[in-house]
Amino acid sequence: MPNETQEIPVIHFERFLNGTSAERKSVADQMRRASQDWGFFYLSGCGMPDEQLEAAFSGSKAFFALPQKDKQGVAWQNPESNRGYVGIKREKLDPTRPGDLKEAFNLAPEGPGPDTHKNLWPAGYPRFETVMTRFLGECILTADRVLQAFALALGQPEDFFKNAHNEHDHTLRLLHYPPLPEGFEPEDGESRAGAHTDYGSITLLFQDDVGGLEVCTRSGEWIRATPIPGTVVVNTGDLMHRWTNHVFCSTPHRVNVAPEHRHRDRYSIAFFCHPNKTSEIACIESCATADNPAIYGPISAGQHLNEKLTNTYGAQAQN
Ligand SMILES: O=C(O)CCC(=O)C(=O)O
Ligand SMILES: [Fe+2]
């Protein structure tokens, strides 16, 4: 169990990608421990090409710098599509607090048919679409590799989670936290992103060097997830919490308005992974023991998400 002398683990994924089977198992075991103790870890060497990541951050900055009317032209419409631009204060990740001091742009893989939801792209910026579509593809590949390690960590066949996610029902979210004006005093509980857990199986979070992300430990204390160059933050969400019979945590996190970074723009990019709607979420064998028998019966991922959205619809859950 973490305490203030412990830090969110940094795991070197190169040894999973290129190592011997013993090394791969050792990386998977570190991920299992980190997911149990924290529900959060940093992964270095995740295989995301640097130039793609840089292009995505540049594209994100360019998008948020567009005139407000261009951004509103691709405004987020509804949770079914869950694509497009979400303006400042529109979302409350913690529904009991004031709106988040951030803006966001969501995109997602598109199905082949004409009836499927399509991404909303601002007119006249074809490069943005190209860069983000390519980056989305790299995120899927990265997430699949991470999911393979999670399967190994839980004693499952390596493609267990990857196969359960092969319809790519994921969301990529660009986030921008604008600088706060001189003398700005947050209202009670106002923050860049309110405390919340993520809904899906895993989230990959790429952050710039500004900082502000905070993670709640199992003992209830908030600690900083300081940016570490060359790493991606991985966290396990509500669905993984259920799938693993509460062995892996779905840890509350938030983006705080701290004095030392509030004058700076902050950019981050989150990739929320969701299993196929028809994937069955049933307690993973290695997570049920005599002391911790299966808590839930099987449910489809789609049904689980619907329950979550119904419970928090007022919060306009968007991840
Ligand atoms: O921007 C960040 O660092 C965190 C964002 C986040 O947790 C979310 O959008 O779910
Ligand atoms: Fe989150």
UniProtKB/TrEMBL annotation:
Question: Could you give the subunit structure recorded for this chain?
Answer: Monomer.
One family name in Pfam for this protein: DIOX_N
- Pathway assigned to this chain's UniProt record: Alkene biosynthesis; ethylene biosynthesis via 2-oxoglutarate
In terms of Gene3D superfamilies, this protein maps to: B-lactam Antibiotic, Isopenicillin N Synthase, Chain
Q: Which PROSITE patterns match?
A: FE2OG_OXY (PS51471)
Q: Which organism is it from?
A: Marinobacter salarius
Q: Which residues form the Fe2OG dioxygenase domain?
A: 167-275
The record's InterPro entries line, in alphabetical order, gives: DIOX_N (IPR026992), IPNS-like_FE2OG_OXY (IPR044861), IPNS-like_sf (IPR027443), Iron_ascorbate_oxido_reductase (IPR050231), Oxoglu/Fe-dep_dioxygenase_dom (IPR005123)
For activity, the cofactor(s) needed are: Fe(2+)
Its family remark reads: Belongs to the iron/ascorbate-dependent oxidoreductase family.
**Protein name (record):** 2-oxoglutarate-dependent ethylene/succinate-forming enzyme
Which Gene Ontology BP annotations are present? ethylene biosynthetic process
Its UniProt entry gives the catalysed reaction(s) as: L-arginine + 2-oxoglutarate + O2 = guanidine + L-glutamate 5-semialdehyde + succinate + CO2; 2-oxoglutarate + O2 + 2 H(+) = ethene + 3 CO2 + H2O
Q: Which GO terms describe its molecular function?
A: 2-oxoglutarate oxygenase/decarboxylase (ethylene-forming) activity; metal ion binding
* Keywords tagged on the record: Ethylene biosynthesis, Iron, Metal-binding, Oxidoreductase
What Enzyme Commission number does this protein have? 1.13.12.19, 1.14.20.7
